[in-house]
Every structure is written in structure tokens, then in C-alpha cells.
């Protein structure tokens, strides 16, 4: 990135810039799509664009369950910033503070001291984090399912447990290893458990000492139904399908504790499980608390339908825009409600936001964002799915699964990734997906560490008090 972008370490210079600088916080769905659209709308002489994210890539989260199940190569569900953001500066680091009044943000890089950068216009697309609860054992035992690193870890962990369970005769340990618990029955949780169970069932066929009946998958949901994003009927159908596959679904039930992998549910059920995946909702990125931007009571940036940030009275905060999971954007098709946190809205809002910012820079009026939810598609494992369109059209099974794949592959950014994903699917049809655990990638230095430990000095030979001379006792020693 250009030298002039970074002010080290302190405040903005008062010197006016020749080209206005747009800083985009977060390089996810909102960040990547708004940056690309802005670059298309505005020439290099009209605006400099900088995207800030600790990761060098955008993750297309709707494909995470398939990445965990090995139906898609994990590398293909991410779009690398350096490749996807042509003509845009990508800055790797975490935003740690926002002072919009001074038009500065603080960046904390992975290594080195934090520094400040200045801007003329701000786009906030910082997304969300897992909404956790202070449940005993949760922080120590559970893993989230929000990013590609977690999806790969869940895959390797599940396949690794199956591998280890096949080599143990301890029945209790085996049961504990083969019990997989998912908490949260929304889209992410249902797709994750359905895809991972499908993969595990596939994998277990390779083990003579294990049987599909040895696998136990448990879904815990606090409300009285799963998949609140689709109709009761389709949610009910999905529940029926999961139960038919042997997945135990606990409704209106909460996780009370999971200390050392001992799961206790609110209805009194108890069991041991070495795998606990937390998919029970999201909350706006907490770094927003360290900003002077107006937030609502659940920590989202307050936005107008134009995607401009506004104060609690609805007055526009100049030069500031927000969209996606971290923003409270009024849903004009559903008066009194806000747009739900999903990729369908995030990507559309990003494009609309970019168009509005380009309009404002050219002294035109911004327009309102309005999008009627077109429906929802969910994959439930190989060749299984559910879909609902326009509120009325419901599709199940193979056709819904094809629709899921088609819709999401088209939404995946860059043709390079779309083609790679489709090529992977075709290869899986011919050779079946790979179900080998690569658990050691999570600690690749373990073997080298063990090899590098100097050998322990041998204990000195004990004093020989025997009446027979030692050379005679060990004839080979003298040979
Ligand atoms: C498992 C799963 C399945 C899903 N399935 C669907 C689906 O089928 N359909 C659907 O419509 N939606 C789905 N979603 C939701 C959808 O992915 C999100 O709503 C969407 O990605 C939100 O976009 P965003 O840009 O607001 O956030 P994100 O795409 O999450 O981007 C936020 C970005 O901010 C970055 N960031 C975080 N902290 C900082 C910081 N301090 N400084 C700088 N950058 C930071 C992150 O690295 C990330 O790149 C799913 C989500 C998950 C987790």
C-alpha cells in the first residue's frame, strides 16, 4: 500500500488529500463486494480504496458446512484479497478503535505496534462473532463454526475421533469419542450437523471394527423448532429427516454444562461427548464498542435504509456507511423489522452501499435499500436438501440440494472460485470425496519438537555387588 495511507503512529494530518480515501473495515461479504463495486464505479483519480482485515481472504460462509464435510476443498470457499481486489489496497490487521469524529481508525497488526490511518469516508463491514453464554466448560471444550479454520478443525477432529475410536477396546471411551454434539438449530447448526453426519457415515464404512450405529449425533436447540428461517412445515420436514437418519434432536432444551466433555442438558439428560460445536447465533463485532459510532442496544451500528450511519434520532453521520451482520438496517419490506444477518442481504447491501457512496461523491442523492427475501436453501448432506422460495414454493430432497449448490456457487465471488468448486464436485462424483483425517496439521511441529528433545542421559549402571565378575555374566560383551 502507498506510504501516504499510513500515519505512524498518531493522528491525522490536516493536509487535504487530492484523492478522497475510502477505508473499508472488514474484507468479508460487505467489504469485498462494496470494494469491488466502488472500484468499478469510481476511477483511481476519484477515490483511493483501502480494505482492512486480519485475514488475507474473504470467506463465503454458506459453503462452510460443505467444506467441513469435504464436498468442497476448503481453499475454494475463500476469495484471496490480493487476487479479488484489483486496484484496491488490502491492509492486514485488526481494527482496534474507530474515531470517526477525527476520521481515523487504529489498526493492530499481527506483529508490531498499533498505528492509525486516516480516511475521508468510512464503510463498516465488520460482521459478527459467535454469541456465547457463560456455560461451565463451554469456552474450554467447544468450538465455533464461523470461519474456515473452524470448519477444517471440526472435520479433522470428527474424522480423527473415528480413527482413534477404531483402535480402542475401551467401550466408554469409544462411545465418548463417537458422540458429536451441536448446539443451535438455525441454518448454520442444521447444515453443519447434517453435512458432518453424512461425512462420518461415509467414513465409518472404511473401518471393520466400527459400525454406523456406533455414531451418535446430537442437536440441541433452545426454541421449540429448528430452521426458523423457513416455514414451520419445511422446518418440520427437516426435523423428520434428521431424526430418520438417527440424529437426536432436543427441542426447547438448553446446554447447561459441558465441563471436561460431560454434557448436561436442561431436561436432565447427561452424556459424554468429545466434540461440542457451538452454532447458537451471532452478535455484532464487539470492537464496535470501541468506537464513537452510534450503536443500538445489541451493539449494531445504527443505519438508515440508504446504508448511511445515523444517530439515534435518525440524523445522518456524515461520511460513514455500514452494512451486513454488524449493522441494524431497517427492512423496508417488513416495516418495524431489521434485515436479518445473512449473506443474501450482506452482498446486496454492499453493492447498494457502494452505488450510494459513488452517488454522494458526485453530489447526487443516495437511494433506499429494499430487498424482499427471495427464500432460503439448505444442504443436508450429499443429495439431500430443503428450499423455500417466495414464501410458498417448497422443494425437498435432491432438487433442493441442486438448487442450493447452484445458488451458492453463483453467489461465490470470482469465476476462478466458481469453476474450482464445480470441478471439485465433478471429481467427487467420479472418485467420491476424501475422508482422511489430517488432525496433525493443527500442530505440525509436534513431531519435530519430539525429535529435537535431547535424549535423556542413561542412568549410571548400578554398583555391582555380585560375587561373579560382570564380564563372565555377559559373555557377549567381551566378544
Ligand atoms: C456456517 C454458516 C453458514 C451460513 N449460511 C448462510 C446461508 O446459507 N445463506 C445466507 O444468506 N447466509 C448464511 N450465513 C450468514 C452469512 O455468511 C453472513 O450473514 C455474511 O457473511 C455477513 O457478511 P458480513 O460482511 O457482514 O460479515 P463477514 O462476511 O463475516 O465479514 C466480516 C469480516 O470482518 C473481518 N473482521 C473481523 N474483526 C475485524 C477487525 N477487528 N478488524 C478488521 N476486520 C475484522 C472478518 O475477518 C471478516 O472478513 C452463514 C453463516 C455461517 C457462519
UniProtKB/TrEMBL annotation:
It is an enzyme of class 1 (oxidoreductase). Pfam families: Pyr_redox_2. SUPFAM superfamilies: FAD/NAD(P)-binding domain. Residues 449-479 are annotated as: Disordered. Keywords: FAD, Flavoprotein, NAD, Oxidoreductase. It comes from the Bacteria. The keyword Flavoprotein applies. InterPro entries: FAD/NAD-bd_sf, FAD/NAD-binding_dom, NDH-2. Residues 21-350 form the FAD/NAD(P)-binding domain. Gene3D superfamilies: 3.50.50.100. Residues 468-479 have a biased composition (Polar residues). GO terms for molecular function: NADH dehydrogenase activity. Its EC number is 1.6.99.3. Belongs to the NADH dehydrogenase family. PANTHER family: NADH DEHYDROGENASE, NADH DEHYDROGENASE-LIKE PROTEIN RV1812C. This is NADH dehydrogenase. It comes from Cellulomonas hominis. The gene is ndh.
